[in-house]
């Protein structure tokens, strides 16, 4: 187990390093000078050069990168060009909302997807199976912004049940969580159905059925428990989708989370904030998938890491 952990930690470090290089290069290849956003259209050439020197933007690109990474290793992701706050402070101020949104979305998506997938597998080739797969396909295919606008129109504007936008506690995160969770639910439903159908064909399922195991025990104790490993893997992978989806969802619902922060930072060419946020999100995705891998041994004792 210790050798496995060492290998995974080494792989995680290499992956984060690769992401940092990619993010840094892409950010600096985007046209436009961030100094112009800070000083405005009427800035003089002297003031632009002075600010570039103060921010270190006049240095060679490799020097800027290694300087940034040296600070990042020490926990310093830089300071926002626009707000003057450190990127770490910006993340800490915004992450509670994004964390809640991601948590509620993954709970909604997982429960809904697993239920739909189990029903589709148990009722294979029936109207229930076809309806479940149509719903899953809609959840995967429908654009997030379209779902968000539809839910706002129906539940906020027409029925006046939920707030249209802004953050005011759990109540204001229900529609965004459903919006973000529907795509996850669709993917999980399809994976659950496929995995359940593979397990149901196994000999031990027929044996349990022949011994008189009840339908509930047969489905949830014998079938779902052995079919859940691929589903858990998919749930871990969906965390990256949730981080990307949060950008659109938070923008539509005007939620002050990491997603809306990165949109604002990109539009103003706030390089330290964009770099810090992308690096932080990448690290979170890598850590979540690592934790999911460790959960395998709890879900299935036959899996052992050497």
Summarize the structure in words:
The protein is an all-alpha fold. The protein has a domain at 93-262 and 295-299: Orthogonal Bundle (MetI-like fold). It is 77% helix and 0% strand. It has helices at 2-29, 34-39, 45-55, 61-73, 87-122, 127-141, 144-158, 174-200, 203-210, 215-252, 258-267, 271-299. Helix 5 runs antiparallel to helix 6 (127-141) and helix 5 (87-122) runs antiparallel to helix 10. The longest helix is centred in the C-terminal third of the chain and has 38 residues, at 215-252. It is globular. The model has no long low-confidence stretch (mean pLDDT 82).
Would you spell out the secondary-structure blueprint of this structure?
Elements: H1 2-29, H2 34-39, H3 45-55, H4 61-73, H5 87-122, H6 127-141, H7 144-158, H8 174-200, H9 203-210, H10 215-252, H11 258-267, H12 271-299
Helix pairs in contact: 1-12, 5-6, 5-8, 5-10, 5-12, 6-8, 7-8, 7-10, 8-10, 10-11, 10-12, 11-12
Features:
transport, mainly alpha, MetI-like, MetI-like_sf, 306 residues, transmembrane, globular, MetI-like fold, cell membrane, single chain, 12 helices
Structural class: mainly alpha
* Molecular shape: globular
Question: On the 0-100 scale, what is the average pLDDT?
Answer: 82
- By CATH, the architecture of the domain at 93-262 and 295-299 is named Orthogonal Bundle
What is the number of helices? 12
Q: What series of H and E elements makes up the topology? A: HHHHHHHHHHHH
Helix content: over 70%
At the fold tier of CATH, the topology name of the domain at 93-262 and 295-299 is MetI-like fold
Percentage of β-strand residues: under 5%
Biggest sheet descriptor = none
Rg (C-alpha, Å): 24 Å
> How many E-type strands?
0
List low-confidence stretches.
none
């Amino acid at each position: 187990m210790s050798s496995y952990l060492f290998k995974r930690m080494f792989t995680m470090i290499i992956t984060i390093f690769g992401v940092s290089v990619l993010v840094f290069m892409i950010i600096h290849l985007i046209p436009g000078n961030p100094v112009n956003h800070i000083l405005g259209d009427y800035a003089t050439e002297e003031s632009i050069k002075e600010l570039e020197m103060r921010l270190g933007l006049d240095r060679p690109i490799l020097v800027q990168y290694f300087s940034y990474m040296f600070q990042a290793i020490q926990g310093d992701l830089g300071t926002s060009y626009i707000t003057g706050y450190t990127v770490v402070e910006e993340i800490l101020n915004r992450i509670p909302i994004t964390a809640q949104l991601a948590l509620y979305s993954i709970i909604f998506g997982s429960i809904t997807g697993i239920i739909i997938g189990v029903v589709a597998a148990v009722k294979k080739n029936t109207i229930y199976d076809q309806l479940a797969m149509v719903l899953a396909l809609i959840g995967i295919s429908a654009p997030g912004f379209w779902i968000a606008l539809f839910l706002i129109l129906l539940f906020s504007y027409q029925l006046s049940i939920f707030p249209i936008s802004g953050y005011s506690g759990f109540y204001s995160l229900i529609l965004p969580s459903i919006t973000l969770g529907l795509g996850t639910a669709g993917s999980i439903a399809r994976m659950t159905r496929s995995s359940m159908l593979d397990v149901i064909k196994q000999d031990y399922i027929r044996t349990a059925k022949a011994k008189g195991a009840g339908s509930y025990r047969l489905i949830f104790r014998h079938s779902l428990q052995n079919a859940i490993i691929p589903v858990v893997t998919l749930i871990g992978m969906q965390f990256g989708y949730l981080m990307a989806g949060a950008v659109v969802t938070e923008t539509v619902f005007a939620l002050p989370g990491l997603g809306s922060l990165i949109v604002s930072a990109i539009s103003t060419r706030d390089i330290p904030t964009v770099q810090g946020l992308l690096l932080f999100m990448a690290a979170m995705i890598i850590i979540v998938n690592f934790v999911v891998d460790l959960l395998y041994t709890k879900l299935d004792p036959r899996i052992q890491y050497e």
